[in-house]
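tool_log.txt
---
The assistant was asked to compare two proteins side by side. It first ran the structure predictor on the initial sequence, then on the second. Raw inputs and outputs are pasted verbatim so the downstream comparison step can read them without reformatting.
(1)
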Amino acid sequence: MGTLPRLHDSAGGTRTLSLLSSSRPSLQWPLPAPDHERGLGVWLVYANSLISPKPATAPNDHIAALIASFLGWTLDAFDFFLVVFTLTAIGKEFGRPDKQMALSITLTLAFRPLGAFIFGLIADRYGRRLPLMIDLVFFSVIEVATGFAPNFTTFLILRALFGIGMGGEWGVGASLAMEKVPPQLRGLLSGLLQQGYAAGYLLAAVCYFFLFDQVGWRPLFYLGGLPALLAVFIRMRVKESAVWERNKSADWSSLGRAIVSHWKLFLYLTALMMMMNFASHGTQDMYPTFLERQWHFSPKERALMTAFSMVGALLGGVAVGGLSDRFGRRKALIGALVLAVCVIPLWAYSPSVALLAAGAFLMQFFVQGAWGVIPAHLSELSPRNLRGFFPGFAYQCGVLLAGSVAYVEAVFAEHMSYSAAMALTAATVFVLAAVVGGLGKERKGGDLG
C-alpha cells in the first residue's frame, strides 16, 4: 500500500493535508461547511478549485494551445469546403438543382453567429478550454452525421447545426491561443493560426482530388470525426488561460453590462470583419465557377488551381502576420490589401494558365496575408473580460453581412465577363477594407491581461 499524505496541525489548530504536488494549493480538512445562503453549488465550485491545478506557466503551453486552435480551425474549414467541392454530386443524389443546394452553404453561414454568441459567452464566463472541447466534439458528430443524411431536409438541418459549431470554434480558439503566445511573436503566430482556414481548404481540395472519384461524397464526411480526438489533446495538454483566470466576470449580469458598455467597439469590429470577409469570400467563393466558365477547367483542374492558391494563402498569412510584429497591425493589413489591388489584372485577366496560377497564388498570398493579422489585432482591441465573445461574434456577424458577395458577383457576371465581375468586386472591397482597417486603433504587442 502507498503511504498516505501526512496530516499536521497549523498554528490555528486546523488540520491541513499536505499534497505531494507543489502545483496544487493546500487543502483544508475538513472542508468548511457549505454557506447555505449562497447555495451548495457555490460550495462545490470552491471545493473543486482547491484540488484543481493552477493555470500552467510552462513555456511550451502556448505551443499546445496554438496547435489545438490551428487544427480546430483547419478541420472546421475542411468540412465547410467539402460541401463546396461536392455540392453538385450531393444535389444529384437528392435530386436538387445547384440553386437549392447552395442554400446549405447559406444556412451554415447564417448560423455561425449563433455559435459564436453561445460559445463566446460560455468562454468568458467559465473559461476557454471547456467550451472549445465541447464545440469540437459537437461539430465532429454533426460532420459524421452529414455523411449519413438520408434526404435533403436532414442535410439542411445538419448544415445549420454545423454552422453553430463552426461559428463557435474560431473565437474561443483564437482567444485561448493569443492569450498564451509571447507578445513579440503574436503577429507571426496569429498568421499561422488564421491560415488553419487555408489549410482546411487545401485539405478538402486534396481529399476531393484523390478520393471523390473512388468513394463518392459520403465517406469524405466520415473523416470529420477527427476533431473529437483533438478535444482529448486539449484536455491532456492545454491548460486554462491565466488571462481569463485574472479577468473573468463574477456573474452573468456583470458580463452583460460589460458587453453593452463596449457597443461602439463591437460595431467597429463587425464592420472590419464584414469588409475582410467581403475580401476573402469575394476572391474565393466564385473562383471555381470563374475557372469553369471563363477557362473551361475540369473539376480536377479547378481543385488543383484552388489548392495551389491556398499554398500562397498559407505563406502569406505567416509572412504578413510576422511583418505586423514590426510595422504594426494596421500598416501590415493595409499594405497587403494595396498589393492585392495591384495583383488584380494578373489574377483576373491572365493570358495563359501559367500566369493565371501566378495570379491565384499572389492574390491569396496578399488577401490571406491581411487576414493573418486578424486574430492578434482583434484580441488586442477586445476588452480583457470579453475576449472570448467579442472577436468571434464580430467575426461571424461580419461573415453573415458579407454573405451576399457571391450573389453580387454572379449578378455582375450576367452583364459583363466573369473576369470583369471578379476584378470590379475585388478592387472595390479591397479599398473599402483598407479604409475601415485604417480607422481603427493600434495596440500591437499590448498586454492582454
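(2)
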Amino acid sequence: MGKEYFEGGPYGKQSQWIIKRNYKILFDYGKTVFPHLFERELKILDFGCAFGVGASWLSKQVKGIIVGVDISSYAIQKAKTFFPHNNMFFYKLDLSKELDNKFLIAKHGRFDVIFSRDTIEHLPKEKHEVTVKNFFRLLTNKGVVMASMANGLNPYSYFCDRTHVGLRMPWSYSYLFKECGFKIVKSFEKQGIPVSRRFKEDEQLIEVTIPLFGFVTYIFAKKIKEQKTR
C-alpha cells in the first residue's frame, strides 16, 4: 500500500484522534483480559503500524519499547519522521517472510505482546497461517497477542475498505490462532455505536456486544510454551 491508500483511502480518512481511540479500545480490553501484564516493562510489536500514530499512543501507556512494522515503505518513512523517539522503532517488514522475522529477533529479541489493530484482514488469506505462526516465534513464552479484525459475517466489512482481502468469520480467526499454537483466552464481537460527533473526526463510540455479527472481532491469545525437541 502506498501514498494513495494512506493519504486518500480509508486510512487517510481517519483523523489521528480516531486512530488513537481505536488503539485505546483494544488496549483497554487487553488490560481486562491480562490485568497484570502491564505492571512491568514490555517489548510490544505493533503489527501494521502505518504512520505510527497508534504506536506513539501505546508508548505513552506502557514502560518499555514499541516496535512498529508495516509492509508499506511510504508509511514507515512517515512514522520515522513523525515519531523519532528513543523508545520507538519502525521497520518496513513483511512478517510472512522468514528473513524479516529473523531480522526482528536479531534486533530486539522476542516480544511480550503483539498488538494488531485492524491489520490481519488486509493480508491475503494465503499469508495468514505463516504470519500467525511467525507471531508465535516472535513472542516470548507466555507472550500474548491482542488483535482486532473486521468480521467477515458483517456485510459492512466488505464495502467499507476494498483492501479487506483476507476477511474471515469469527470462528475462523479463532481456529487460525489455535492451529498456530495459541490458546484463545478470550474472543468476542463488538459493534461500535456513535454517541457524539461534534465533527466528523471527533466521533466517540460505545461498543456493544453483538455475538457473531458485530463489525469487529477481538481475539486475545496466549502463546503455549514451546516444547523442547529431543
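---
observation on (2): The radius of gyration is 17 Å. The chain has a mean pLDDT of 91.
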